Amino acid sequence: MNKKKLSHTGMRSSLTSVLAALLCILIGLVCGYLVLLAINPAHAWSDGFVRILKGGFYDAPYGIGKMLANGAPLVMTGLSVAFAFKTGLFNIGAAGQYTLGAFGALYCAIVLHLPWYVGLLAATIMGGLWGAIPGIFKAYLNINEVITSIMFNWIGLYLVNEIIYGNGMGVMYDSRNTRTWNLRRLEGAEGTMIPDFGLNKVFQTNSTTIAIFLAVIVAVLIWVILEKTTFGYELKAVGLNKNAARYAGINEKKNIILSMMIAGALAGFGAGLFYLSGVSEWNPLNSTSLPAMGFNGISVALLASSNPIATIFSAIFISHITVGGSFLSTKYYPTEVADLISGIIIYLCAFSMLFRGKIHGLLFGGKRADKTNVNAEPAPAAQKKEGK
């Protein structure tokens, strides 16, 4: 009976979480449509809202390929934030870890001409090392990881800029004129790029690779680690209560550092998937802002309620909306409307607990009350018998 009750409780919790996320999405889309109406009501539906709703399917198969290519790094940055959330930490430094991962991947590919899998490994290591630093500060000095990870975002960005374009190492000797790192401008770059296995031909793109499948595999692996292993249990235990975990014999300092290191490695891996697929070029010198992909991971994690499997669908949805926004007619609307919709959804995710409580009350409130009353009846009866 207890197992059945637990399974029913878990199913109800999952259902309410999904419905709460859908409610956030619905409200965000309605708000986006109202904004389109305010800007240009004559074209709000056909040239605006429909294109955003269709997303990558508006210009299939090219748009679908673009959606998958952009979705792969989003899955990873979402996992980075979600993994830290699950272990009681807030990794807001995914953007910096993503930056270091991009540098590691592209340096191995363009300068060292190493295979793509080596570039992915380098990206993962670089992101992991950068993520471990806030973890060390948290574990040994009890400095809030939010503060240190934000600071290390900017340190990472300008450190990479200095290494690439500074007068010191001069790593960018072969691209000083273009000021960018782009695998497609490199002769013989085939071995350094993630293979597509015919996906580019199917989607009529030049950047749709197996990256999305690699991201899905990692997401499943993270779920298994968190839910099915002793290591995952220890990480979550430290996140719930450090003192109780220490009393149970768990090394909380080690687990805090490992949690932030794994979160950073996931973000770095995402950068490797993005740039080694040739989706975009890296141009840090002309950019004074951090990669948006790192911060978008926060929205993905929030929308997925930090569930690694749900992160896959959440990332694909955010990518779907973003690609749809790129198909907006710039004659009538700015493409940033899609970012506005995503931002509203993120904001509403902060109220997901409230939504879940209301939805649970509407769906299961009556049944739960009945069961509580039934279970409560024997106690007074037993007390009366004992009194007699």
What is shown here, in short?
With 388 residues, this protein is mostly helical. It is 72% helix and 0% strand. Keywords: Cell membrane, Membrane, Transmembrane, Transmembrane helix.
Helix and strand layout, with pairings?
Elements: H1 2-39, H2 45-54, H3 62-86, H4 94-111, H5 116-141, H6 145-165, H7 199-203, H8 211-228, H9 230-240, H10 242-247, H11 252-275, H12 292-303, H13 308-326, H14 337-349, H15 352-376, H16 378-387
Helix pairs in contact: 1-14, 1-15, 2-13, 3-8, 3-11, 3-12, 3-13, 4-5, 4-6, 4-11, 4-12, 5-6, 5-11, 8-9, 8-13, 9-11, 12-13, 12-14, 13-14
Q: SS-based structural class?
A: mainly alpha
Number of strands: 0
Q: Judging by the overall fold, what is the CATH architecture of the domain at 73-327?
A: Orthogonal Bundle
Helix count equals: 16
Low-confidence stretches: 167-178, 366-388
Average per-residue pLDDT, rounded, comes to: 83
CATH class of the domain at 73-327: Mainly Alpha
Main location: membrane
GO molecular function, one term: transmembrane transporter activity
Pfam families: BPD_transp_2
Subcellular location: Cell membrane
What do you see in this structure?
The chain starts with a helix and ends with a helix. It is globular, with a radius of gyration of 24 Å. Helices cover 72% and strands 0% of the residues. The protein has 388 residues and is mostly helical. The protein has helices at residues 2-39, 45-54, 62-86, 94-111, 116-141, 145-165, 199-203, 211-228, 230-240, 242-247, 252-275, 292-303, 308-326, 337-349, 352-376, 378-387. It has 16 helices and no strands. This is ABC transporter permease. Its main location: membrane.
